[in-house]
Amino acid sequence: MGWRWTWAAVGLLCSAMGSHTFAATQEPSAFDAKPWPTGQASPAFDAIDMQGLRWRFVDLRGQALVINFWASWCEPCRAEMPSLEKLASQYPGRLRVLTINFKESPRTVAAFKERLSLQLPVVIDADGVLAKTYGVRIFPSTVLIDSSGKVRSVVRGSLDWSGPQGRSLVGPLLTKHPQNADVSE
Fold first, then answer.
1. Distance of CA 51 to the CA centre of its chain
2. Domain extent listing, the chain
3. Is the N-terminal amide bond of 140 cis, ω within 30° of 0?
4. Rounded to an integer, what distance in angstroms lies between the CA atom of residue 80 and that of residue 140?
5. CATH class of domain segment(s) 64-171
6. Are 32 and 155 within 8 A, CB to CB?
7. Exposure check for the chain: N or C terminus, fewer CB within 10 A?
8. 142-168 confidence digits (pLDDT tens)
């Protein structure tokens, strides 16, 4: 009889997780934003995206940065991708959006990008080191970095980044900040 309860719990969990997708006209409520720990340095990274472009944390100073950790098997990740694409086009020259795929093959990621016609840059985190560096354990998770290079917060869960909640999280990143952020290099 215990196995029936286990399967019922699994069914409820899957049902609940599936209900956190969203349409373009409605805001999801399946996210939380945690501030970056005070005094903790912003982790540096040096990665190559699928097009062969190098992304170095230190080179992106002066622009706000949104780093989204995702996987194609994650329904909320798939649901929020179009809003990240829209966000990237809303603030040209002021905001960069970088997506980091968690431990999937280049073939899987390329097929996903093609299926959704995504133009966002994708770095493949084949061994999970980048996710670990930013403390990411939930997908999707999005790291918000201001124009001085300081991590401000980590958003866990799905969000319509082009909606009011997304804009309220991104807006403060776009203001000018002193260039003295504590950044690991």
1. 19
2. 64-171
3. yes
4. 9
5. alpha beta
6. yes
7. N
8. 999 999 999 999 999 999 998 999 999
